[in-house]
Each structure stands twice: as C-alpha cells, then as structure tokens.
Amino acid sequence: MRYDGTHPTWRQERSSVKIEMTPERPTEFKVWYRPQFISNVCHICKAAPGNESCTCSGCGLVSYCSRRHLEEDEDDHEDICDALKGVTELLGSKRAHDKAYLLGPDQWREFRLGVANLCSKQLGRPLMPWETEVCLYPPHCATCHKFCNAAERCTECHSINWCCSQHKPKQHAEHCRQLSLIRQILQRKVHVIKSPQLTGVPAEMSALLPEGGDIVTYSLLTEIATSPLTIFQQLTVSENATVHIIGPEPHFEANNLSKWEIFLFNLLPSVLSLTLNFVGPEIGPLPPRKINKNGRTLDFTFHQDLYHDFANKEFASTPSLICALNPGLYRSQGFNGQDSWQDTIDAMFKHRDVPVLVTAYTKKEIGMDHERIKKQVPQAKTIVPPSPNPFSSLRPLMNFVSDDYSPVIFKNAYYTVLTA
User: Fold this and answer.
1) Residue 226 exposed, middle or buried by CB count within 10 Å (0-12, 13-18, 19+)
2) What's the CA gap between 122 and 42, in Å, rounded?
3) Are residues 265 and 359 located together in one domain of the fold?
4) Helix (H, G, I), strand (E, B) or coil at 267
5) pLDDT in tens, the chain (420 residues)
6) Range of 86's domain?
7) 239 and 273 in one domain?
8) Beta bridge pairs of residue 20
9) 180 shares a domain with 65
10) pTM of the prediction?
11) Keywords in UniProt for this one (predicted)?
12) Are residues 165 and 255 located together in one domain of the fold?
C-alpha cells in the first residue's frame, strides 16, 4: 500500500532496503493517546457525521455522532462550554469566533489564541490540550472564517469547512488524505506496534513501509523512528559517542527507549559506547538506564535542567552531537513563559566544531530558527541549510502556526545543521 500524500519527503519509488519483522520476540512499541478535538466529527468516537449527529447547543462547536455520546461527554464538556458562552457574552456575538470574519491569517491565529486565553481566564485554570483545540480549530470557513453549518464541509476528511465553493482551499485535495489519516489514527487507537528488523540502513523513511503495510500503523511507526534516524544521519562515527538531546518531550523523544537501540545504536556497529543525555525541564527525574549488547553499551541519562545549566556542570562532557528537536527557537517565550532559549543557544555553540542539529515542523519555522541562531551566534557556520528531512515523521498532526499554508504538520519535517 502506498501513501500518496504531499509531505515533502515522500518519493515516487520506495527505498530498496528490505524490511522484515524480528523473528523472535520483536520489541513492542507503546503508543500513547490523549483526548483530542477534531472539528465536525464525534468528540467521543471520532465517527464521521451521520443521520443521528448533533452539536452542542451551548457552544455550537463540538459535535457528536448521537445523543448518547453527547450525554456521555456532558461532564467533561461542561467547563469549556461555559467558558465559550462567557466569551460570547463578553464579545457581544452569537458565537465565540464570529468577530473573526474576514481577518487575515495572522490576525485569525491571534483571535483564536485570544479566545483560548479568555476561556482560561473564565475557568481560572490552564485549558487542557483538547479544550485549547476547540478554541483553535472551530468549524469556520477556512478562507473567510464565517461559521459554517454541517453541510458546508469536506465530505471526505470532514475536517475543513468552506462557506461557498469559491472559498474551498485550493490545496485541499493535497491535504485531504492526511486529515483523514489523523481521524483514522484516533479512531483505531493502535496501542502496540511491533518493531521491524532492518536488513540495511534506510535511505529515507518510506523504507520502513513493507509491501501491503497498514498506513495507520506505518505512520505511527515513523513517529517513533524519526528522532533516532534523524540523529543517525548526522552522527559522526567513532568508538565512543555522546549525544545531547535538548528539551525532550516525555511522550516523544523520551518514551519507547528501545527505539534508540533499534533505529540508532544497531545501525552503528563500530560504536562501542553510545551515551544519550536527555536534558530539559519537562523530562522529570528519571533513573539512568544501560543496555549491554555484545560488548557494546548504550547509556541513557536524564537531566531535569535547562540546557545552559546542564552544560556548565562539571560532569557534562563534550558531546559528539547536540540536538534540539522541534524546539521553536524563534519563540520569544519558552519554559515558564520566559525566553530561556537565549542562554541555551549560547550553550549549544560553546564547543568548537561540534555539530548542532535543529529540526522543525515546518519550512517557515526552520527558517526562523536558523535566522535566530545566526543572529545570536554570528560565527556559527551552516553545514546543512534548512532542508526537508528524509527521516521526518509521516504521522500528520494539526497545524496552527502556519495553517493558512497547510492544515497539517509533521515532527522533524525540516532540519538544519550548524557548528561553532
């Protein structure tokens, strides 16, 4: 089965690398899901709209496949519904987003963020991720932002609305299958994926798709494999190697640790010792781990520090590679609402000739990250300019930062490499 989406790293022909399932007790990767909102589909089961579909009469934004699922969700939905009604009263409009009509792309994003912030103030607490998504992805026209009824949406992916045929996004055909895949993944909720056995080094991510493979399972596998494979292509081979991974997410870089063995360590047979230092405030105090394999060792250490604090500690050795995966360096606000990136960027380039790998979700973001680095560290040399990543995740995610360009994004989709 071939996926013919529009992600920049898809190729017409698959790599020739042979993929087999490990014959004896293959490693099982666990997939974690959180509640997620998708406009127009049932918030409980993600079913497409049908004859019994209904929408919350309070906020008018959350849909259900039946009255039963609406009633099942009443307790969880109550807070955000009341907050949205409060925002509507505050703005003096029929619906929370009505005054966004005809705003430009940047103003439309600012308006939706404003609705989310007002809802948070109404509730006196931070919004849960799915509540934020209700505010950021309402069923409004993708072009003029007018509220759309149930009949004014794509009947394939159900995720994009337009108030008239002239306002249908010109590129929607390219993204429709990706949006459909988001819903399929959340509907099926595959929780366990068996690791493949690579019989060679893959040239690109599509090499992980076996003939007749399932696209849902495959897309989830690429999200697991993307970080180690992205690092693999930039790591200089030596007997002993150390990689600093900055700002890891607990449910992305720092989970399914066996992926680092399968998609990185096993592909570096001449490396006798590989140490991965995970450094970031969100990582939590975790004990170190060690894997011994045929006289070779793979070590994991976890440091609940900002990177510039970690880098100044005596035990922090000079790394072989420094990585920041999807960090958003261009943002002026980071951890705890402060610009912690300024000191971290300086620390990333304190070691002469050590390559620094940065990835991003979009072409726009990698360009802005690269620009900030060059502005802050003028002496930094670009080894690889901002480019599409052949080992990008191919699991589509909803895009907010540049949704006027594309409604979907992918982890590690673009990358750049620099050195001091």
Assistant:
1) buried
2) 25
3) yes
4) helix
5) 333 344 443 332 323 344 343 445 678 999 999 999 999 999 999 999 888 999 999 999 999 999 999 999 999 999 999 999 999 999 999 999 999 999 999 999 999 999 999 999 999 999 999 999 999 999 999 999 999 876 688 999 999 999 999 999 988 998 999 999 999 999 999 999 998 878 788 888 988 887 678 999 999 999 999 999 999 999 988 899 999 999 999 889 999 999 999 999 999 999 999 999 999 999 888 899 999 989 999 999 999 999 999 998 877 789 999 999 999 999 876 555 677 799 999 999 999 999 999 999 999 999 999 999 999 999 999 999 999 999 999 999 999 999 999 999 999 999 999 999
6) 54-187
7) yes
8) 197
9) yes
10) 0.89
11) Metal-binding, Zinc, Zinc-finger
12) no
The token duo for 228 is 């180690």
Distance CA 88, CA 65 (A): 25
Token pair for residue 208?
Answer: 């992980």
**Around Cβ 225, how many Cβ atoms within 10 Å?**
26
User: Looking at the domain assignment, is residue 409 inside a domain?
Assistant: yes
Determine the residue type at 121: K
Looking at 156, 187, 218, which one is the last position of a domain? 187
Spatial separation of the C-alpha atoms in residues 298 and 258, rounded to whole Å: 10
Indicate whether 171 and 307 sit together in one domain: no
Domain count, the chain: 2
Which SS3 state, helix, strand or coil, does residue 314 take?
coil
Would residue 223 count as lying in a domain?
Answer: yes
| Overall size of the chain counted in residues | 420
What b-and-e string marks burial along 242-270, b requiring 16 or more CB atoms within 10 Å of the CB? bbbbbbbeeebbbebebbbbbbbbebbee
Regarding whether 373 and 237 lie in a shared domain, the answer is yes
